[in-house]
Design goal:
Layout (H helix, E strand, L loop, with lengths): L1 H24 L3 H6 L5 H25 L7
Length: 71
């Protein structure tokens, strides 16, 4: 499970950098690398993997770092 979490964390970091570039500069490196139109399926797979990774990290955090009372 540790390797899954490391991969998920890496994908989420990369995804957040991509969204930073889209937000600040209107530049999407995923579309630049994997294309648009007929090749959009690859971009959708990449975005789906980033989304699944973020869900995994939320699950991981909830399981191993539950809400604690503030002392």
């Amino acid at each position: 499970m540790k390797i899954t979490t490391i991969i998920a964390f890496t994908l989420v970091i990369i995804g957040s950098i991509v969204w930073l570039l889209v937000g600040l500069f209107n530049f999407n490196p995923v579309e630049l690398i994997f294309g648009m139109g007929n090749m959009a399926i690859v971009s959708r797979i990449i975005y789906s993997l980033v989304g699944i990774s973020s869900l995994w990290l939320i699950f991981y955090w909830a399981m191993y770092h539950p809400f604690r009372a503030i002392d």
